Amino acid sequence: DVKVTQSSRYLVKRTGEKVFLECVQDMDHENMFWYRQDPGLGLRLIYFSYDVKMKEKGDIPEGYSVSREKKERFSLILESASTNQTSMYLCAIQDGIYEQYFGPGTRLTVT
Amino acid sequence: QKEVEQNSGPLSVPEGAIASLNCTYSDRVSQSFFWYRQYSGKSPELIMSIYSNGDKEDGRFTAQLNKASQYVSLLIRDSQPSDSATYLCAVTRNTGGFKTIFGAGTRLFVKA
């Protein structure tokens, strides 16, 4: 079974703080993704990575950056958190023929 | 027009009935199609994948794909209250690099 873990289930941060969300996989998957999910908007891709130190912007990269120093770990960074970044953040890995498997998610609240 | 469209619901069916969930997509070069189930407060879980026209069955679930009509559906037979969740349709295309687009989801309620 594919296992994807995320560092926190719930997180509360203040406006302007730098926020790190971590995602770790237990297999040797190359492709990893960060999404945010908001009611009515569905899942939107923020960034993805297809190998160590490789990253590609998704549909909504503004205000975010990522880091992938090791194959198993993909971090999402909010450089200066804002209230409009309050959301559910989901990490996923790709397996098989484009199948994606998600971590448990981090519900981030920015006050 | 959204790339992947689903009726947001809620779709309400009685226990034991067939639930029919529908999804349309706009890009004809789409190649891979998925259904995810998401319980409230949880992350999406892959339940079905389908890659060619026709039906694919897995237990109580049947995925149907019609590429000519750009339509994919999920049938849940003998619906159970535990099937109550939001179902996300996802479509992947591979042109100049792959991309997966998710629909916003259909909420399903199965009444006991």
Describe this structure in words.
The complex is a heterodimer of chains A (111) and B (112). With 111 residues, chain A is mainly beta. Chain A has no helices and 11 strands. Chain A has strands at 4-6, 10-13, 19-25, 32-38, 42-51, 54-57, 64-70, 73-78, 87-95, 99-102, 106-110. In chain A, strands 2, 4, 5, 6, 9, 10 and 11 form a 7-stranded mixed beta sheet that branches. In chain A, a hairpin with a 2-residue loop joins strand 5 (42-51) and strand 6. Chain A is globular and about 40 Å long. The relative contact order of chain A is 0.33. Chain B has 112 residues and is mainly beta. Helices cover 0% and strands 60% of the residues of chain B. Chain B has no helices and 11 strands. In chain B, the strands form 2 sheets. In chain B, strands 2, 4, 5, 9, 10 and 11 form a 6-stranded mixed beta sheet that branches. In chain B, strand 9 and strand 10 (98-102) form a beta hairpin. The radius of gyration of chain B is 14 Å and the shape is globular. The model of chain B has no long low-confidence stretch (mean pLDDT 93).
Largest interface: A-B, 17 and 21 residues
Write down how many β-strands of chain A occur, each being a DSSP E stretch of 2 or more residues. Answer: 11
Based on Cα principal axes, name the global outline of chain A.
globular
What Rg of chain B is obtained from the alpha carbons, in whole angstroms?
14 Å
Low-confidence stretches of chain A: none
Estimated helix fraction of chain B: under 10%
Outline of this structure?
The complex is a heterodimer of chains A (111) and B (112). Chain A has 111 residues and is an all-beta fold.
